[in-house]
Amino acid sequence: MQRASLVFALAGALLLIGALLGETIPLLLPIATIAIGAALRFSRDTAVYLRILIGLIAFAHTLLGVLYLVDNHGYTPAAMDGFTPPLAMPVAAAIFALAMLAVGRIPVIRTIAQLTDPFFVSRETGVVQIWPFPEFRAQERVIGTVLLSIVVIMQFALVAISVRLSYWNRDWFNAIQESNADEFWRLLLTVWVFWVTIAVTMAIYQYAVRMTLDIHWRNWMTQFYTRRWLSGAIPYRMQVFGVQTDNPDQRIQEDINKFTTDTMGLTLGMLSQVSTLVSFSVILWTISSDFTFPGTEVVVPGLLFWIALVYAVIATYATHLIGRPLIRLNFLQERYEADFRFSLARLREYGEQVALLRGQGAERERLGTQFARIVDNFFRRVSINKRLIAFTSFYDYSNSVVPYVIAAPFYFAGQIQLGVMTQTAGAFARVESALSFFIDAYQRLASYKAVVDRLTSFEESMQRAREAGRETGEIVITEHEGDTLRLENVIVRLPDGTPIAGASQLTFRPGESVLLAGMSGTGKSTLFRAISGIWPFGEGVVHKPAGRKLMLLPQRPYIPVGTLRGVVAYPALENLYSDDALRAALEKARLAHLVPLLDEDRSWAQTLSLGEQQRLAIARALLEQPDWLLVDEATAAMDEPTEAAIYKVLREELPGTTLISIGHRSTLIAFHERRIDMRAGVDGVYRPVDPDHVPAQ
């Protein structure tokens, strides 16, 4: 951008010298070129997405400026007669570039840029194919910039074709008025057919490229947010810290989809309408350059343009006043719909428990309450939309006659021909439509703002979760070259800072089996999570042996949807282990009856009992072969003989693994060499106490 700014500044300086020396170069053109250079120069602090657009506008300015100079010096071919751009177009491009630069400083645009820019600066490698070109591999920022540039340039080209067809429309209706059949058919079969064929072909190709960019961008953003959400136990921290964003699944699946689609749609709409506004404003201004104000002899240069401007500004302001509440209501509608969908999915997951508790009535009441919120908010939106539709519909219907009503007096007075009248009406409609972009897109803009707010709040929630331990202190996890697991001056706190458990000096030796006992609520499970590194709140240091694998089995294991093979192998990929290894692990975990079902794809969380799920987690541990295994009541749903058999398998199959268990059954003492009790101190904080050595039985 900096080099390009210097090139434009130099070109502007040369044009300025030529203009001052008497060349046929209007002073506005070098000023506009220098302005483009300034926009490029100061865009370095602007959002990358906007920098790309400013660069494309600079390209359009260059093309328009060259065409203007060629025409100004009489070198335009006859085929381009009537199609060369006026001086106002390259000047308007410069004004648009400066406007984009100013828009980039608006807070809401900066917020949107935080969502758009990561893709357009990513150095990750991606692959894309655009027909008829072969597949190519490049950095994501290059792919995004190239695809966006193609789409935007084609959009400018389509506007240019519409301008050319405006002149065709004028000449064609003049031929009708003059009964010139030869000119009528020539214009139709040569000019119209030629440009419409190009426009249709370009529109189809632009759509294909745009959809390619849309899905490619969405794919990258989905992976980006999924990685950020799943890094560092963020989902767990968001829950325990109380910063849980409602329905993160919807933010990733639906809101990202809407964001990429609407960003492209609104960007192209804005660029199209602005370029249309500039192009047809010139036509409208030129036609009505000497029109008098109706009923007077006062000449108002560009009268039709000023009428269109005032007409659209008043309508735009009225639309904003009517539709402003939609932004908040759309945000709430997305939230209520997602909450209701989540509750239905959760009811499906816990159908057995609800049936056993006879909870159908309570569930109906809860679902009814949630859906009532949807209905109430829906009718609030309907109420606003009724007023908005009433106004915009009247406005749209008026647009079909207002241009003719304004141009008719000049036609009847003989100041313009029929072709000029239709061109005037068409240009007025295009200018008014461009100025009314805000009106037509208001509902979409309101929905887009809600999506931006939801993604932004999701990002903020993840960031707060990463910094969750900043106010309460954070437990530090370090690695050392020894072979022991040591807790040094550890205090585990709740998110509000309340201490619940501590360990000033606690050491676990390699290969031993330890039972961590105590009443419920004494912080045993929380201490386990601190050792695992997912509980940040507190202080002190956990010294872990370097290069050793640690695995925690919770009381209720996670069972993903998919094949049983993938469920057993989790968190590894399902093809990591051989069939023999999976079969052996299931048999040792007393799940031999599941071996024939390895390739079955179903919701196993609803198929397996809690005891079977816990034994499946044991099978995972046998496959994983961790150096340190933390068992958090992970056998509580098993009967005592099965539990005893499972612990025997763990000691036989994992002889080098340090086994640390949490449990309340007295029978667990027999399976461990060492017992630690969590007991309350005088300060109410529970700390581990080593009672007399309990020998293994």
UniProtKB/TrEMBL annotation:
| Membrane topology of this protein | Multi-pass membrane protein
Q: What are the transmembrane regions?
A: 6-36, 48-70, 82-103, 142-167, 187-208, 266-287, 299-318
Under InterPro entries, the record lists: AAA+_ATPase, ABC1_TM_dom, ABC1_TM_sf, ABC_transporter-like_ATP-bd, ABC_transporter-like_CS, ABC_transporter_sub-D, P-loop_NTPase
SMART domains annotated for this entry?
A: AAA
Identify the residues that the record assigns to the ABC transmembrane type-1 domain, covering every copy.
Answer: 150-447
Main location class: membrane
Designated name of the protein: ABC-type transport system ATPase component YddA
* Upper lineage: Bacteria, Pseudomonadati, Pseudomonadota, Alphaproteobacteria, Hyphomicrobiales
Gene that codes for this? yddA
